[in-house]
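Final report, Chapter 2: Outcomes

The project's central promise was a pipeline that accepts a single protein chain and returns its three-dimensional structure in a standardized token representation, suitable for archiving and comparison. That pipeline is now operational. To close this chapter, we reproduce one record exactly as it appears in the project archive, with the input sequence first and the structure output second.
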Amino acid sequence: MSKISELKKINVNTFKLMKVEGEKIATLTAYDYTSAKILDEAGVELILVGDSLGSVMNGYENSIPVTLDEIIYHCKSVKRAAKRAFLVADMPFGSYQVSDEKAIENCIRVIKETGFEAVKIEGGKNRAALIRKLTDAGILVMGHIGLMPQMVNVMGGYKIQGRTGHEELLSDALALEEAGAFSIVLEGVVASAARIISKNLTIPTIGIGAGAGCDGQILVYHDVFGLFDDYTPKFVKKYADLKTVVNEACSKYIDDVKTVNFPEDKHTF
């Protein structure tokens, strides 16, 4: 059994230790009390309330419309459930782009109102100065480079990164590490580039569609458990088909109500 699995609470130093010892970091997203409680009890080390909630929870076309208030609302629900996992809040589009001062104000609000331990911000060298200011202000930051969903319009779609080389991505990653980021998400990065980046950093990388060479992996709750099927990215491995389970159970419930097989005497006062 891993030493990490015996810890009662995961903190930022846990990830430094896992990087040094070569133990992979298991992370998933969650957006509500019930799902967060399940993941926390199962033993994931990090839970991210991602702006992916825009699609899987609220039915938006992408993450761009997600507001800071929505992130805070879902973070509060997750915080009430998670006792062990390290908690990270995604800063939504528009919450940190206007100015560094406004970004710091918004990040402080998230940390104070949710009780989360860190925030996540997309961007490479262009966000290094902001991350340094946030770190100096006492806010832990997880970086995010590669395919950046909040830049989908600028990038012209969800484009895999690193096909022409790793140099620019590595430069971004090193800049974020130097600025004080405690970890970096590598999304939609070719595996060879992600592996090189991970080996050249002292902080852990968390991959999503970036191969097995990252220091950890993250997937979206609704994707990994088969609850969301509007689209399925190539990098998703489905570990359960809960939509089918719920659909079949719901059909049985409807039939029982229609045929008066529910409620039975044992369900009645």
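Archive annotation: The chain has a mean pLDDT of 97.
This record, like all others produced under the grant, will remain available to the consortium after the project formally closes.
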